[in-house]
Specification:
By secondary structure, this protein is an alpha/beta fold. It is built from five helices and five strands. It has a five-stranded parallel β-sheet with strand order 2-1-3-4-5, with helices on both faces. The N and C termini lie far apart (29 Å).
């Protein structure tokens, strides 16, 4: 069973994502802050991280830089699902070129099935097309 670290500060969305992914037979560790997420990674390396960029204290981009600074976490795939529009040049440059995310979902346009399909694709080792390929 693949393990997923879900970093989502919104209680309703976190519960919804966790429940949907658990129904797909994934083990989901849901946390609401970047500090808690790094602590969870110290205990167990996840097979995949799902991340909201808008976080309190340390934002998602800061989390990604710290996450990728650990050698054993550099190859863990990350899927972003966020209210931050993926068309922001600064976001797309940092996420794709510097911290190597696997997919980006823009929450207002993303269905739960889109997220699950991306998770399945990434965890099965199939590449997601380059660029902002997920629901944008």
């Amino acid at each position: 069973m693949a393990s997923i670290l879900l970093l989502e500060p919104d209680k309703i969305l976190g519960q919804t994502y966790r429940d949907a992914l658990t129904e797909q037979n994934y083990s989901v560790d849901w946390v609401r802050s970047s500090q808690t997420a790094i602590g969870a990674c110290d205990k167990q390396t996840p097979d995949l991280v799902i991340l909201e960029l808008q976080l309190a204290m340390h934002n998602g981009v800061e989390f990604l830089y710290e996450f990728r600074s650990y050698k054993d976490l550099q190859t863990v795939p990350v899927i972003v699902i966020s209210n931050v529009p993926p068309t922001l040049k600064a976001i797309s440059t940092v996420l794709w070129d510097e911290v190597n995310i696997a997919a980006y979902h823009y929450k207002p346009l993303t269905r739960l099935t889109d997220l699950i399909n991306s998770v399945d694709t990434v965890l099965n080792g199939a590449p997601i097309l380059n660029g902002l390929t997920a629901t944008t």
